[in-house]
């Protein structure tokens, strides 16, 4: 059973009756990712956990309506973003909504299981390149390639255009490609460039 189908089943159980076991499983499936996402805005782990807990508390209160959501995952990320911003003072909120002062960490191991097959040197080089990206670019790339959200979903979560997302992802891909090419040149490697690029830039999230 894929993740989407399993999540749908959990939502049906929770919506139909107060199934606390199913709700805990739903929380466990998303909590880690959502806390990391909230922390990009709050830069405070405990406060990020509180924001995610607030979102899930509201989900439980309104659990009867969960099955009506067209895209539960995108809804979760948007709810966490809004809750995190509500935790901030007005000046900080304005700054974060511009997506230019966020604390984003990209962990390449979460992008593709096959990345474990490459050298540690290249993995670290690509991870550094990703984490050196501007905050807005890094956040968008993280949602697209690590969280595997579609561009329309990201646009809805962050209140920006799909065109902006496409542009920012292109910037990230260009930087990653440069690192891979430099690595292959330095090592005189015969590994195909396109194969390595595909590991770091999966193309199933447009």
Provide the CATH top-level class of the largest domain.
Mainly Alpha
Shape: elongated
CATH third-level topology of the largest domain: Rna Polymerase Sigma Factor, Chain: A
- CATH architect. name of the largest domain: Orthogonal Bundle
What integer value in Å does the Rg equal? 18 Å
Number of strands: 0
Largest sheet: none
pLDDT under 50 segments (min length 5)? none
Distance between the termini: 23 Å
Question: How do the SSEs run, as a string of H and E?
Answer: HHHHHHHHHH
Note the beta-strand portion.
under 5%
State mean pLDDT (0 to 100 scale).
81
Account of the 3D structure:
It is a single chain. The protein is mainly α. It has 2 domains: 3-97, Rna Polymerase Sigma Factor, Chain: A; 108-200, Winged helix-like DNA-binding domain superfamily/Winged helix DNA-binding domain (Arc Repressor Mutant, subunit A, Orthogonal Bundle). Helix content is 70%, strand content 0%. The chain contains 10 helices and no strands. It has helices spanning 3-16, 20-42, 45-61, 72-87, 90-97, 120-131, 135-146, 151-158, 162-187, 193-200. The two termini are 23 Å apart.
């Amino acid at each position: 059973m894929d993740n989407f189908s399993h999540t749908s089943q959990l939502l049906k159980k929770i919506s139909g009756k107060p199934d606390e076991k199913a709700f805990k499983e739903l929380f466990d499936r998303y909590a880690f990712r959502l806390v990391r996402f909230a922390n990009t805005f709050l830069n405070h782990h405990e406060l990020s956990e509180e924001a995610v807990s607030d979102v899930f508390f509201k989900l439980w209160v309104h659990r009867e309506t969960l099955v009506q959501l067209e895209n539960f995952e995108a809804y979760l990320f948007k709810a966490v973003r809004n809750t995190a911003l509500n935790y901030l003072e007005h000046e900080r909120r304005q700054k974060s909504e511009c997506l230019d002062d966020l604390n984003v960490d990209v962990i390449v191991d979460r992008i593709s299981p096959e990345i474990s097959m490459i050298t540690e040197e290249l993995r670290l080089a690509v991870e550094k390149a990703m984490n050196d990206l501007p905050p807005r670019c890094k956040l968008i790339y993280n949602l697209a390639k690590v969280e595997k959200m579609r561009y329309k979903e990201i646009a809805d979560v962050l209140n920006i255009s799909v065109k902006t997302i496409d542009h920012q992802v292109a910037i990230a891909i260009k930087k990653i490609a440069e690192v891979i090419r430099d690595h292959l040149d330095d090592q005189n490697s015969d590994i195909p460039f396109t194969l390595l690029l595909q590991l770091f830039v999966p193309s199933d999230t447009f």
